[in-house]
Hints:
The chain has helices at 12-25, 42-54, 58-71, 94-111, 114-132, 156-176, 181-196, 208-211, 221-235, 253-265, 269-278, 307-321, and strands at 81-83, 86-89, 92-93, 144-146, 149-150, 236-237, 241-242, 250-252, 292-294, 299-300. It is mostly helical. α2 (42-54) packs parallel to α4 (94-111).
Amino acid sequence: xxxxxxxxxxxxxxxxxxxxxxxxxxxxxxxxxxxxxxxxxxxxxxxxxxxxxxxxxxxxxxxxxxxxxxxxxxxxxxxxxxxxxxxxxxxxxxxxxxxxxxxxxxxxxxxxxxxxxxxxxxxxxxxxxxxxxxxxxxxxxxxxxxxxxxxxxxxxxxxxxxxxxxxxxxxxxxxxxxxxxxxxxxxxxxxxxxxxxxxxxxxxxxxxxxxxxxxxxxxxxxxxxxxxxxxxxxxxxxxxxxxxxxxxxxxxxxxxxxxxxxxxxxxxxxxxxxxxxxxxxxxxxxxxxxxxxxxxxxxxxxxxxxxxxxxxxxxxxxxxxxxxxxxxxxxxxxxxxxxxxxxxxxxxx
Length: 349
């Protein structure tokens, strides 16, 4: 299997080393913690699994997805946090429940393993259904629920990610020979909320809320271009990367690489390659990546090398190099848009 690479930025050997740094942290159960001795969350775990698939470590990726199957609760959800393979936060995050659909679709694209899809489909279906129990009448999905019931707040980043997962879920449903028109409607209502009603979401100063709606290519092109241009100077620091949050002088590797994926979805390849190159100061000799840098002080913070940062580097390299059949995932290649507002849908706006 060919390995992703970006000439002048990352070689195939460097990408292999980065994927190896993720596999080195993976536990025998298949679980992928944030770093050795760190905790695990189900979303970043799937991000790590996707990078393993993209880098040819298919068996390690399959073990990661087996862990997701084994830890799903009866209601289709996952706990927010695991430490040493024990649940340490039992609350439910809607985005965490949905993201397995994205990972499963990606693994199918990379491997063509239909038996894997058949194994994962019931888990994906329960996960997306669990996420959609938290969708409000206005189309937005609240971010979490717990002992006291659902939290009312809806977050832009989480909802944009759920929209991509619903698109992957609809594609998987077609693959296994079924239909989920309720997912199509839920995704359409969610996209309408994202694109037309920003007041429905909690305003946050994080760069993710800026670029995440562009990931996957579902936002209309002109609106996506304008969105990126509008806050580019606010978040992008030339030669350093993308700020995690404004106005802090702190860039983070994962956010930079997710922005790379958003730019790739827009066809802005030169900007994307420059950004990927700009964050390589976070790379260590073993291929792992520090989470971020306070650039005014030249201080790495937090002092940790995270698997999800390394994973997003691998996925960005694959997207830019068009290496694997899964490289178009964040461009939305082959996925239904789920953005056309259904006029007969219930709406309380």
